[in-house]
UniProtKB/TrEMBL annotation:
Cell membrane in keyword set: no
Function of the molecule: Catalyzes the isomerization of 5-dehydro-4-deoxy-D-glucuronate to 3-deoxy-D-glycero-2,5-hexodiulosonate.
Catalytic activity annotation: 5-dehydro-4-deoxy-D-glucuronate = 3-deoxy-D-glycero-2,5-hexodiulosonate
Lineage, broadest ranks: Bacteria, Bacillati, Bacillota, Clostridia, Lachnospirales
CDD domains in the cross-refs: cupin_KduI_C (cd20491), cupin_KduI_N (cd20294)
Pathway linked to the protein: Glycan metabolism; pectin degradation; 2-dehydro-3-deoxy-D-gluconate from pectin: step 4/5
Name listed for the protein in its UniProt record: 4-deoxy-L-threo-5-hexosulose-uronate ketol-isomerase
Binding site for Zn(2+): 198, 200, 205, 247
GO BP of this protein: D-galacturonate catabolic process; D-glucuronate catabolic process; pectin catabolic process
Source organism: Lachnospira multipara
């Protein structure tokens, strides 16, 4: 498990491109037949993926957590962006198709991942946060399980941000200690995931960009509103956004992204909007 330190906004102002990418960009998220994890000391989120191809993979705590098992003191969110697969939680199997999700509460001990077809492997994207209470494990089929109020169509083609927000894990949909997770899908012709942008001091956020064509790039914008920076990203890469940083993007093609938030406030709409005239 790779460990990333926290980030001070005063220091980040001085970072060059290589340093920004080193500290915030997570490349090669999906490694065949491996579970790859990155532990960020920013709100202690763990980001990564299980990509079973020819074998079943087991989620283990590793030395970094100093725990008997991965979810001894944690909760876990999963969204599959690959082929069909199965997640087994303490002997119970859950069958995933593309874009199905899941929440697993603190205390689950034996978690394994496998693919139905090695030629089209599952890609289980993972977000995990520290937990203080056990909430029920819940499987999420976005086509039928997400409540209407948690599936919101926003923006318009004229402003290039026509998109649908699908809220998988948050209060009122799937209960958790602090983890929130969902997916935003941009319509063809739209390239902005959110603008005007915002920050939220009460939680950090991680984005995973996918459904990005091979010849396209995503420009992820970060930094303080008056000290913006950007990171050029490609398909199936993730980026860490501290609570003091904006988190917005535009791209050369429509795309989809998974957002995961960890912090003390689970109010989705608790955002500090940034006026366009204040951006620098």
């Amino acid at each position: 498990m790779e460990v990333r330190p926290g980030a001070n906004p005063v220091d980040v102002k001085t970072y060059d491109t290589a340093r920004l990418r080193h500290d915030f960009l997570i490349e090669n998220v999906f490694v065949p037949d491996e579970i790859k994890l990155t532990y960020s000391q920013i709100d202690r989120i763990i980001v990564g993926a299980a990509t079973p191809v020819n074998k079943e993979l087991k989620l283990e705590a590793g030395d970094e957590l100093r725990a008997k098992y991965f979810l001894e003191r944690r909760e876990l969110g999963i969204i599959n962006i690959g082929g069909n697969g199965t997640v087994t939680v303490d002997g119970t199997e859950y069958n995933f198709k593309y874009k199905d999700g899941m929440y697993i509460g603190m205390g689950a001990k034996d978690i394994t991942f496998k693919s139905a077809d090695p030629t089209n492997p599952a890609k289980f994207y993972l977000n995990s946060a520290p937990a203080h209470k056990t909430y029920p494990t819940v499987f999420i089929d976005p086509a039928k399980d997400i409540l209407p109020e948690n599936k919101k169509e926003l923006g318009c083609l004229e402003s290039a941000n026509h998109r649908t927000i699908n809220k998988y894990i948050l209060p009122g949909q799937v209960e958790s200690c602090q983890l929130e997770m969902g997916m935003t899908c941009l319509e063809p012709g739209s390239v902005w995931n959110t603008m005007p942008c915002h920050t939220h001091d009460r939680r950090m956020e991680v984005y995973l960009y996918f459904e990005v064509p091979e010849d396209a790039v995503v420009f992820h914008y970060m930094g303080e509103p008056t000290e913006t920076r950007h990171i050029v990203m490609r398909n199936e890469e993730a980026v860490i956004s501290p609570s003091w940083s904006i988190h917005s993007a535009s791209a050369t093609h429509a795309y989809t992204f998974i957002w995961g938030m960890v912090g003390e406030n689970q109010d989705f709409d608790d955002m500090d909007d940034v006026d366009m005239k204040d951006l620098r």
